[in-house]
């Protein structure tokens, strides 16, 4: 089972990838990690990549493909790979198909954790925590029972993270859309894209993903 997992920040992609690794023995493959590992291990493609990076140039698609191919030849990927941050273009998506089919494997699903942007903004913008014990609160969904007093420790100071604001959330969403726009149509045309409600709670998101992987959704 080989999948691409897509989702904007806040959709819980990292949590789900980790769970799939633990429960199904799949491995998450991010290009950055693979590149660093190949350079460190001095694999044939890693040596090429190092030369290019040392010259201050960008690593080409051919080198990235080489690195992914080398990684897919390692036994721990046989139970399944979760591609993260790759492919980014239709050309890379086609290369990935070739890399997998050369090894008698295929891409099974592209799972996208969908979020409602306005709801995500509302969720993030209203967050605050107790400055003393860290208990989480929300302007709309979970106010302290006594105004200005932490339910847990009775402290009176609260804090908000500066990046918990609408502008940051909307910028991240726009970046995410720009990154996935080139590849979603490619996989939609192949009927591989499955959407999961990334706004649901963690267990529910996990259940939806499992149903897809088990062929029940
Ligand atoms: Zn507290």
What are its keywords?
217 residues; alpha/beta; Rossmann fold; five-stranded parallel beta sheet; three-stranded antiparallel beta sheet; 9 helices; 8 strands; binds zinc ion; Adenyl_kin_sub
User: What do we call the CATH topology?
Assistant: Rossmann fold
Ranges where pLDDT stays below 50 over 5 or more residues in a row are: none
SS field, number of helical segments? 9
Secondary-structure content class: alpha/beta
| CATH homology superfamily name | P-loop containing nucleotide triphosphate hydrolases
CATH class: Alpha Beta
Q: Cα distance, first to last residue?
A: 15 Å
Number of strands: 8
Explain what you see:
One of its GO terms (molecular function) is AMP kinase activity. It is a single chain. This protein is of the alpha/beta class and 217 residues long. It has a single domain, classed as Rossmann fold. Helix content is 47%, strand content 15%. The chain has 9 helices and 8 strands. The protein has helices at 13-24, 31-41, 44-54, 61-72, 90-102, 117-125, 166-180, 184-189, 202-213; strands at residues 3-6, 27-30, 81-84, 109-114, 127-130, 136-138, 158-159, 193-197. Strands 2-3-1-4-8 form a 5-stranded parallel β-sheet. Helix 2 (31-41) crosses helix 3 (44-54). The protein binds zinc ion. Zinc ion is lined by residues 130, 132-133, 135, 150, 152-153, 155. Zinc ion (ZN) binds next to loops.
């Amino acid at each position: 089972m080989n999948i691409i997992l897509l989702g904007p920040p806040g959709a819980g992609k990292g949590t789900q990838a980790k769970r799939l690794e633990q429960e199904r023995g799949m491995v998450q493959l991010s290009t950055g990690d693979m590149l660093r590992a190949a350079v460190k291990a001095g694999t044939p493609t890693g040596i090429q990549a190092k030369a290019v990076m040392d010259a201050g140039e960008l690593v080409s698609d051919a080198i990235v493909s080489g690195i992914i191919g080398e990684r897919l030849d390692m036994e721990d990927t046989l139970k399944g790979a979760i591609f993260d941050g790759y492919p980014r273009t239709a050309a890379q998506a086609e290369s990935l198909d070739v890399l997998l089919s050369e090894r008698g494997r295929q891409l099974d699903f592209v799972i996208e954790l969908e979020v409602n942007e306005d709801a995500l903004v509302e969720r993030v913008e209203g967050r605050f925590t107790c400055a003393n014990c860290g208990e989480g609160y929300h302007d709309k969904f979970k106010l302290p029972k006594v105004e200005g007093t932490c339910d847990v420790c009775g402290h009176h100071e609260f804090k908000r993270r500066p990046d918990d604001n609408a502008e940051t959330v909307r910028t991240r969403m726009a970046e995410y859309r720009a990154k996935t726009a080139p590849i979603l149509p490619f996989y939609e045309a192949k009927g591989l894209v499955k959407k999961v409600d990334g706004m649901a709670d963690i267990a529910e998101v996990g259940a939806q993903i499992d149903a897809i992987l088990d062929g029940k959704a």
